[in-house]
Specification:
There is one protein chain. The protein has 1 helix and 8 strands. It has one helix at residues 2-20; strands at residues 25-31, 35-42, 50-56, 68-75, 78-85, 95-100, 114-120, 123-129. It is globular and about 40 Å long. The strands form 2 sheets. A 4-stranded antiparallel β-sheet has the order 1-2-3-6, with no helix packed on it. It has a single domain (23-129), classed as Immunoglobulin-like (Sandwich), CATH 2.60.40. The longest helix is centred in the first third of the chain and has 19 residues, at 2-20.
Length: 130
Amino acid sequence: MKKALGLMILVFMFLFAVGCSSNEEVAYSGESEHWEVDLGINEDSPTKYKELVIHYKGDLRDLKTLEKLEYSYKIGSSGGTVSQSFEGSSPEKKRFSTTITNNDDEIESVQDTINVTVQWLGNKETIQLK
């Protein structure tokens, strides 16, 4: 009887821990001729972060002369621009990312479509994320 009770308590504690640790993440993605973009939003995290990842689809050698990469995003009424400088050295990878945090009590609800604009080497592409 004691073993059965102990087992039931253990199962209950496991189910409680699993239920409390589920982080709901919403994912958006899109692509253009040269870029793939992913946006992950963790709505259950205390910092309510958003991770924006852009990936160059071409060869890394194409970015050899890249001095500056700039990408901007608009999510609801908020947005921002990330600028990375490579003056004097070329990028060592084709993946670039940034984490956007929102410490407010309630994260803004995300639209059906999010726009990300990437500027590099005199080029500019806007990617719609869905």
